[in-house]
Amino acid sequence: MIGNQQSSIQPWVFHVDRREISYLRFTLESYDGMAAVTTLDPYTALIEVSIAPGCEEIVFELLDSLKNQEGLTIEKVPKV
Fold first, then answer.
1. Beta-bridge partners for 15
2. Cβ–Cβ < 8 Å for 32, 26
């Protein structure tokens, strides 16, 4: 799993393939109210995923599925 469950909205930063930003945004945000995607830097393909409380496990499972089954590049950026 990519992350751990949290009790409040936590922003998670990921490095993705820039060609996949729109697809990831559309896919994650199609689950109404679960997560919002913000592009931090379109050139380095950094996105921030803000996950609603209680939805962390579902979102991380979805990200794992997109990564493992569809071959998308999704790499968690360590918090500094």
1. 46, 75
2. no
Q: What does pLDDT average to over the chain? A: 90
Q: Which domains does the chain have, with CATH numbers?
A: 10-76 (3.30.70.920)
Q: Which tokens hold the place of 40? A: 């931090």
pTM: predicted TM-score of the whole model, two decimal places:
0.84
Q: Which DSSP letter does residue 16 get? A: E
Q: Which two tokens stand for residue 42?
A: 């379109």
Tokens for 35, please give them.
């997560």
Neighbours of 34 (CB within 10 A): 17
Q: What is the average per-residue pLDDT within 41-62?
A: 95
